[in-house]
Write a structure and sequence with these properties.
seven-stranded mixed beta sheet; alpha+beta; 2 helices; about 15% helix; about 120 residues; globular
Length: about 120
């Protein structure tokens, strides 16, 4: 999730919405583990806790401002070994979801290297 948020927050976005992060537990988007969410908010002050983003019939909304929110979600994140992990990621804003991308993280001895593949989940 950190890699995805770093990429998003480094983009030059005019008037960005409230941004939250979630994991999908197989039924619904839920908050990250409290320690993980706190660490990400410390790294990215623009990130709001998922408790601030509420899912409505119109999509995710910032419950404080009542404006649309953007939620980045990880799906099916698994590590096949200590040095290789994969997971799907997408975002949802104003009721529309982005296509999911398959992310692969490989430990290269001193840092994680990330690649993404924009394939459709059914592929």
């Amino acid at each position: 999730m950190e890699n995805i948020l770093a990429s998003y927050f480094s983009a030059d976005i005019t008037d960005p919405p409230t941004v939250c992060a979630a994991v999908h537990d197989g039924r619904e988007a839920v908050a990250l583990a409290p320690a993980d969410e706190t660490a990400l908010i410390a790294r990215f002050p623009q990130l709001a806790p998922l408790s601030r983003c509420t899912l409505t019939a119109e999509g995710w909304m910032d419950q404080e401002t009542e404006e649309p929110a953007l939620v980045h979600t990880l799906h099916s994140f698994t590590c096949q070994s200590d040095s290789r992990c994969t997971g799907w990621a997408s975002y949802n804003v104003q009721g529309a979801a982005s296509p999911s991308q398959l992310y692969t993280a490989v430990w290269q001895g001193d840092a994680w290297q990330f690649t993404s593949d924009p394939q459709i989940i059914a592929q």
